[in-house]
Amino acid sequence: MTKFENQLPVLHHLAIIMDGNGRWAKERGLPRVAGHQQGVKTLVETVEECLEQRIGFLTVFAFSSENWGRPQPEVETLMGLLVEFLAAQRTKMLERGIRLKVIGDLERLSAQVKQSLQQAIRETDAGDTLTLTLALSYGGRDEIVRAARRIACRVTAGEITAAEINASDFEKSLDTYGLPDPDLLIRTSGELRISNFLLWQLAYAELYFVDVYWPDFGPIELRAALESYRQRRRRFGLTAEQMTQEDVLSNNAS
Ligand code: FPP
Q1: What is the mean pLDDT of the chain?
Q2: What whole-number distance in Å separates Cα of residue 65 and Cα of residue 254?
Q3: Catalytic annotation on 211?
Q4: Most buried residue, 130, 185, 190, 200, by CB count within 10 Å?
């Protein structure tokens, strides 16, 4: 057995597309809102399990740029659930060292939602156990376009030349600056796509699709996903032989 085979891949950052709330509700003859309410409970349980599993970063797709096109009452329900979630989880976030972060085009959020988010972000800033990032009003292409604009402004201001732009500069201009790239992406509900989520950051993530609606996704399903991840052999574009080298292994673990 090679050293690499001995080395279990470390999971620093888990990303989740929480899909299937609407179908879960429909199958039970309930309004879609009931699916979203149950979805919030699943999110709370998932955060708990991430703490248990010592996962340092959890990023969830809570509201996409495209979700603004949903019926207005559903958009309002989701925003209301978000504000309730922040208020209900405040004490736990502070006690358990959970730091809240948000990515996306926040300009489109209402003043009330922005204020709740800003307060939670400020209050939890010192949290160092788990960084919970909510992708809100988020689209991967939109994030990349906004990053390109930021860099273009720096070029216009004469801070850097176009020829000097590199991947590291680009990463620093993304909303996710400061977060490691996700190691594992989970999508629930049986759909097999990434739907404009973290397009840049998922470049080398392992993908896990599960045929369970988000409200039914519990600790057992999460542990199964983590077990699947542990069986993966990550190569980051290199050969398996190269991945046996000590330096590559330590990069992988960092
Ligand atoms: C996808 O299900 C889920 C969403 C669009 C929203 C995700 C939101 C939550 C889990 C709860 C809200 C979270 C917070 C933090 C407030 P869908 O409605 O697209 O389901 P469908 O594909 O079955 O219709």
Answers
A1: 93
A2: 32
A3: no
A4: 185
Q: How many domains does the chain have?
A: 1
Residue 3 lies in a domain: no
Largest CA distance in the chain: 59
Domain hosting 231: range is: 10-139+180-253
Residue 254 has pLDDT above 60, yes or no: no
Q: Which CATH number belongs to the domain containing residue 227 in this structure?
A: 3.40.1180.10
Is 138 within 8 Å of 103 (Cβ atoms)?
yes
User: Within 13 Å of residue 98, how many CA atoms lie on the same side as its CB?
Assistant: 26
**Ligand 1 pocket, 62 CB below 6 A?**
yes
130 Cβ below 6 A of ligand 1: no
Between CA 35 and CA 28 the distance in angstroms is: 9
Which of these is catalytic: 19, 142, 175, 183? 19
pLDDT digits (tens, 9 = 90+) for 199-218: 999 999 999 999 999 999 99
**For the chain, how big is the Rg over CA atoms in Å?**
19
- Read off the pLDDT of residues 25-83 as tens digits, 9 standing for 90 and up: 999 999 999 999 999 999 999 999 999 999 999 999 999 999 999 999 999 999 999 99
